[in-house]
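Hey everyone, long-time lurker, first post.

I ran two proteins through the pipeline my lab uses and got sequence/structure pairs for each. Pasting them in order. The first:
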Amino acid sequence: MKRTICLACLIVCASLFGRAQSTRSKYADSLLHITQRSASDSSKASAHLLLSYYYAFRDPALARQNLDQGRKAAAPYPFLHAVSYFYEGVLFYGASDPAGSEAAFMKADSLLGEFSTKDAISFRSKTWRNIGILRQAAGDEEGFADILIHKAIPLAQQAGDTIAVGKNYLDLSLVFKNTMQYSKATGYILQSINVFRTKYSAGDLIVAYNTGAENYVLDKKYPEAKAMLDSAWKLLAGWPGKELYIDYYTAESMYYDETKDFRKSLASIDKGVALARQYNKRYEEQRLLLQKFYTHFNDKDYTNARDVLSSLAEQPEMMGQISNRLQVFNGLAETNAHLGNMPAAYKWLKRYSQLSDSVNESKLTNDIHALEIKFSSSEKQKEIAALKIEREKAELSARNNRLITWLLGTASMFLLVLAIFSWLFYRNNKKLAEQRLREIEQRQEIQFSQAMLQGEERERRRVAGDLHDGLGGMLAGVKMNLTGLSSAPAAGNGSELHKVIGQLDSSISELRRIARNMMPEALLKFGLDIALKDLCGSMMTEAVKIGYQSFGIESSIPQDTQVTIYRIVQELLTNATRHAHASNILVQCSQNGDTFLVTIEDNGKGFDTALASRAKGIGLGNVKRRVDYLHGNMEIISAENEGTTINIELHVA
């Protein structure tokens, strides 16, 4: 039975996240004290706005009162006035007014765009994140992903808000999780965990572990899910308050359900429901009850499963999201079918199909067709019983039966054709959505790599120029002056001057070598082939022999591309000599049209290629980034104590 549980929630103030209930009361009291005692209008405005957030989901009327007072006090302060619309968006969200919420958030972004401070940029990032969450709640997963990638994440990075970046990564993982792309979701979950570990944001780390556990359960990777649950449990042991235990028990119950330990699954659900009621978390409570339905259903306890789902169908929080309504309708259809109540099953199935069609995700599956057949068979049995009782109407009943059979057959054919077209339409739309998400990711990665590589080469050119033209010229002048002094009759100790001149001459040579290494003159003057040959010769020593072979290298390759290829070969030669301790190295470069091939073989100590992605300090990450920049491929053939061969194919059009 298909199951997707949406985790997105509106979290807009990190300072309030995860506090215990008693701490929250003290927090509200301290803000209230500021509004009554502070002489500063800006302090009063800030305190009122924070109070409006605090009461948004507790007492909407009091939240509106504080928002109006905060906006009035913020009138002389344009930044605080702009921020007030951010908090108004939160207030509308708490009042279940998504249209008003999005309008307020858009107003906040428009006004905050006039400020360039980090605080303003950070608020804009949070604003766009909340707009994305509203879009996701309306069923637009692709729109949510687009907002995260093009708005929320870049703004959070610009503001230097690392924690916000981690939260956005976690949100992006939910998009892939909800579209059943679990491996991609795992990548973003692990990135968010790395951010929260580095900054040690314990509350956010617990949320990420819980999310990772659910994703691994849905991906059928139960050992990994258990490891995530264990990590969350260790952090929860030292966490004040119990609210974060609610999501933990949700993930734990899913784990026990999937591993067929239904008794433990129900126990975890009961613990979570008790906490959700204690903290008045109605949606979280209903989410746990939805999991309770799945546990009963998988345990074949269809009566309890139906009762739980019938109760949820009356809850506005649960039924407010399209994805939840689809689960409830489909679940009621299946449980009633298992209980033999075919009319009720068909009723809920019809509602499920109508709702699916309304969001362009409808499909008539084999299960629906099977329920249709069961319902038809039930009706036919009633007709047969009626025919036995009314024998005198046998002929008329037979004609009616043939007519009904013909109509049902025609209807079945129509439904089958409709199912095929609906399934094809849904599959094509899903493929297009997945392709757009992949293209968005790839464009962002290419832009990051291109900007980083271009910036790196510009800095190399600048430093090389400064060393060669500035410090190099100064050292050459000092050498000339010392040479003149050493030849003068009045020169004191001539031998000492000659010694200094020799040392200075060596320094100039070393300086020029460094400058040439950062931006090789041979590449700029004579092209890539000569530069690579010169590079191999310069790195060769008595202990290391380097052979260079080339074929068909054209001088028309763009200079930026030549520099990138040069850096790839330079990095790999450095790895072979410094890390692999090779004594013989062969470099082969060739070009065939727009394809450039590089092969580097060495007799070094080699390494385990399975660990290459986790290796640090050997430059493979830099090489891979440059190969990706040129849309190329890299193959590494190596084993411990057996040397290494690296084959690279690049596109140089």
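...and the second, right after it:
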Amino acid sequence: MNDHDEDATAEQLSDRERRRLQTSRLVQYLLLQAVIAGACVLALLQSLPGPPAQYQVTAFNLTEAGVERAVTLPYFSPLRNAMNDPPRFTGQFVRPAGEAARAWSVFLPRFTNGVEVTVNDVVILDSRRDPAANRPDRNTPAIAVIPASVLRDGDNTISIRLFIWGPITGFLDRIWVGPDQLLRPSYDLRTLIFVTLPVVFSSWQAILAVILGIMWVMRRHEPAYGVLAAAMAVGVGQAFLQTPMDETPFSKLNVVLISSAPIESALVLTFALLFSGWKWQRYGWILFIPGVLLALAGLFGNQATVRALFLVLAVPMVGFSLVVMAVVTARSALKRQNVAGFLLGCAVTIMLTCWVVDLLSVFQMMPNRIFTARLSYSVMLVAIGAGLTWRFARALNQVDGFAGRLVSQVREAEEKLKASFAREEERARAAALARERTRLMRDLHDGLGGQLVSIVALSERGNGSAGIGDAARAALKDLRLVIDSMDDIGGDLMLALGSWRERAMAQLRPHDIALDWRAVTAQGLPVHPELRPWHVIQIVRLLDEALTNAVKHANARRITVRIETLAGADGFDRGCITVEDDGKGFEITSEGAAAGAIKAARGLRNMRSRAARCGAELELSSCAQQTSQGTHQGTRVKLTLPHRFPDSDGAAG
């Protein structure tokens, strides 16, 4: 067997293990849902605790469709509409002697759709006065206190008329007639379960609709939240609207909203599909056809038509939606394996079970008729709320984890950055020291070194002490220049120019040349924080060169140094130093060099090189001709400093 066959066999084994694992998970999920459904059925078959059996009245004479016969409650009527001639139940109950001091009541746990209760020919209850209690899917109980003047000791007659207006057949549950204090606890229990809790869940549903709506507005890329918010809003409308008994300006709208169960089911089904990863298709609108037809019937038809169509359109649509949702949520829970999908699948199982039980009770296959499908809808609300909470908590954990990882990564990056910065700082310090060492070596070599060589040469030639003294003074001057350039002047070049001025006056004094020092602007020169010692020494050497040329070659009697700050075309201020003499001048070629004298030309090149190394501009102007007045125009050296000095000594071209 080769490697390819071994890989194929391993892949087959892997696929087989994967299918076995998926099958195992599916079986476990289905078994759990079967257990949930069985538990729901057992819970629904349990009867709620009732009043003492001795006060229960079960034997009645029923007059229905003109026929009188004996019946035992609970009773399922075959009629779907009986308003003008409703079924009448007539029975007897006994109030023992001595009970006159206690109030007696009639307690009706469940009926469809409305009742009128008469005791001894006196009407004590008419449920039609409470439209909120007349919904077919409501389990609203009723209790009425019998006036003391109506009751008598011994036999009493009770008559119940059952009004039926569909869409399902009529139903009357067992009734109790007895002391109010014994009947009231059962009434309160049923009111809590079937009236108060639905209102609480409907309020919660309204809050959930608002929350989901906000989530959809903030996260438009997740339309499932918007669809579920619409479904919650429709459900709230169904819960709080009353059944219209007569035709009113708003009765049609009430009918449409109350009968909007297929629209709500379609919206919830759409949410389940989107939640499981299904993308909206063009044929998705088919889900809303039953709801739209029922709404049109409510707008343009009458209430009887809507009630008839409700059984044909709404009930099957609700069942279809629940079955599809059960399949979709099961697939999502097994595929994604998240808590939200699992909880939603369990909630759908409970709702589907309650819907089946309600359907069986409509077909009189259950001993009682208590509708729990609408009440079980609260289980989905709990599942959705728990799923959203779980998702929110998971998102918070992910954010906390991401924040923790980010803090760790930032801390690591910061440590690395500090180490890198320390290395770069060390390299920069070493490079700066190397540059400064190189500059000092070059300055000492170019200045002091040359002077020392001259001293040695003069001493060897024996030309006398005068030349040696001059060379030594020049060397001392150059050494002072190098030392002065090392001083920290804080970027203020005026401090260095002050020292240079003293040396310039000492240099000009033996030659009887006057120094005219002019600071044109009050601040002199701008302060440059980036100014370095090598900038200072280049500028000072350039000025020394200009001063020496004037002393040696110009035959000048006055040298003017002008210092000022000029505003540039770019809006930045630039310092300007001008050295001008009244000597004879010299001729400058088109290339900017001195004509004729090689040594002078070399000096001008050095001046331009020093200016370029500092990023400054050097401008030379001179005239070797006499003017008409017989005076000499002289030479002018203008050095315009940069707005910002270069960081590197190799900036010169």
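Reply from user beta_strand_b:
Welcome! Quick read of the second one: The first helix runs from residue 3 to 45. Residues 53-191 form a domain with the Jelly Rolls fold (CATH 2.60.120.260).
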